[in-house]
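$ run holo --ligand "adenosine-5'-triphosphate" --emit tokens
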Amino acid sequence: MASHARELTPAVRVRNLHRSFNEAGGVLNGLDLDIAPGEFVALLGRSGSGKSTLLRSLAGLDRGVAGTGRIEVPEKVSVVFQDSRLLPWKRLVDNVTLGLRVPDAAERGSVALAEVGLAGRETAWPHELSGGEQQRASLARSLVREPQLLLADEPFGALDALTRIRMHTLLRKLCEVHQPAVLLVTHDVDEAIVLADRVIVLDDGVVRHDARIDLDGRRSQADPAFARLRAQLLSELGVEDDHDAPGRPVRADLGERAAS
Ligand SMILES: Nc1ncnc2c1ncn2[C@@H]1O[C@H](COP(=O)(O)OP(=O)(O)OP(=O)(O)O)[C@@H](O)[C@H]1O
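-- output --
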């Protein structure tokens, strides 16, 4: 476990987690993980290494999957997926506040929409929004519940590079304001370094690598320390760093390249 999380009661505590879908072998094989309150953890790993399985276990979405181990998460957990999962027959504010049983739900919905840059779009239908705007709405829907833990499974994976950069800025800002603990599954090594306090690499169903990101201030891909971290993480993932074009996201889902 990471030493920096020791002083605080963790927001997430996972012990000896095993999960398997069939007799062929485990997907998670005795995984331990702590996440401190307000800590932003990015989760990398090769395709099929069990990232989504871990996230779904933390979200309580893995009923029916064989497994053992202990999971402790806070009471209020929100999940964001790659697709926004907005209900097409509900207006934006109703999507954002769906299931929120408080008297001022509509006001809270408006505030959350404004926070993600969708002020005044309460009555819009999901199909009237761009992909990036739909993901903004999805973030608003998560944050309106004031989660202590935000679980995000490749939330920006389907967005173009420019929108993705804007979403990074937005997510960092939202996390500074709301301070949830975050577990972000991503294939994008640069995204992990830009956003996270800590990056972990999953392999063989356990945490293989666990590194704190100690980059000061604005995190620039042009910074040599950024490049060193990228190279280290890619090496942990078994991928060579051929990052010759600054600004190009480095994705770690290149199973064939890693094997060659
Ligand atoms: N519902 C399921 N039934 C059977 N096998 C599954 C199921 N869900 C996942 N698996 C298997 O478990 C393994 C881990 O899957 P998981 O989706 O957790 O990986 P991942 O690291 O998130 O992969 P990716 O990066 O490709 O999204 C894979 O081999 C996958 O085929």
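-- notes --
The chain has one domain: 3-76+147-259.
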